[in-house]
Each structure stands twice: as structure tokens, then as C-alpha cells.
């Protein structure tokens, strides 16, 4: 069974970096990158009953235009109860504000907080750490 991963980050360079990291991993992994949180929210809501289309994990940047990562989390927490499977979120940000780490504790779906620049070791840590529980439907 493969892992489905979505990246939500307005930095296209980050998209490419993570894409290259994924190619080095010996784990079956489906990957999609989005620049706008609204597109991901629309996708999740539209496909909320489709187990195979929902991601297992979302890597989420906090500082984005239009809908910030914080806004995304607020909306996600409302709708997650309708999803066909559990979707975990990892914060991936350049923020160094310690209040951000405290604030993420309010969100049940957030399983971790990683600072940019994101590294291969961080990706492997996330995939091996049990943040994602894969179950066959």
C-alpha cells in the first residue's frame, strides 16, 4: 500500500525540493503539490467520501497568501469528521516564532512541526515516525 502525500506551500522551489526527496525514498508514495490552500480545501471537501483520493498526510506551510495555514487548519478541523479516512497534518514552515509551536497544540490533526529548510532526514522521520496510520479499507 502506498502513502498519499500533499504539500500545501506557495513556494514552488519547496515543491521541487520535496519532489526530489521523495524520489530518493524506498517507499511507494503518491505526491501532489498545491500552491493555494483553497484548492486543497476544495479538493478535500469534494472528495471527502473517497478513501483513495484523500491524502494520508498533508505538509502545510503557515505563511501563504489568501488563505493562510492557520485559516486552512481552522476549516480543516471543522470538516475532518466527514472524511472517509484520517488525514494527518505536519506543519512545514520558516516561522521561528515559539508561539506558533504552542498554537498548533490546539489542532488535533497536526502531528508535527518542522522548520524550513526541509531535509531528507526530516521527510524520512515523518514517514517512519507513526504520524500516518495506514489501514486497508
UniProtKB/TrEMBL annotation:
<dbReference type="InterPro" id="IPR001789">
    <property type="entry name" value="Sig_transdc_resp-reg_receiver"/>
</dbReference>
<protein>
    <submittedName>
        <fullName>Response regulator</fullName>
    </submittedName>
</protein>
<dbReference type="InterPro" id="IPR052893">
    <property type="entry name" value="TCS_response_regulator"/>
</dbReference>
<dbReference type="Pfam" id="PF00072">
    <property type="entry name" value="Response_reg"/>
</dbReference>
<keyword id="KW-0597">Phosphoprotein</keyword>
<feature type="domain" description="Response regulatory">
    <location>
        <begin position="4"/>
        <end position="131"/>
    </location>
</feature>
<dbReference type="InterPro" id="IPR011006">
    <property type="entry name" value="CheY-like_superfamily"/>
</dbReference>
<feature type="modified residue" description="4-aspartylphosphate">
    <location>
        <position position="61"/>
    </location>
</feature>
Amino acid at each position: 500500500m502506498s502513502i498519499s502525500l500533499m504539500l500545501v506551500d506557495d513556494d514552488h522551489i519547496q515543491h521541487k525540493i520535496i519532489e526530489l526527496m521523495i524520489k530518493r525514498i524506498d517507499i511507494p508514495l503518491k505526491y501532489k503539490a498545491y500552491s493555494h490552500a483553497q484548492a486543497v480545501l476544495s479538493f478535500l471537501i469534494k472528495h471527502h467520501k473517497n478513501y483513495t483520493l484523500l491524502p494520508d498526510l498533508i505538509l502545510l506551510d503557515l505563511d501563504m497568501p489568501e488563505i493562510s495555514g492557520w485559516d486552512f487548519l481552522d476549516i480543516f478541523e471543522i470538516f475532518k469528521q466527514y472524511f472517509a479516512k484520517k488525514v494527518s497534518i505536519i506543519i512545514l514552515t520558516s516561522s521561528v516564532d515559539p508561539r506558533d509551536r504552542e498554537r498548533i497544540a490546539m489542532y488535533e490533526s497536526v502531528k508535527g512541526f518542522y522548520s524550513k529548510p526541509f531535509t531528507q532526514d526530516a521527510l524520512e522521520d515523518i514517514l517512519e515516525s507513526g504520524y500516518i496510520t495506514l489501514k486497508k479499507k
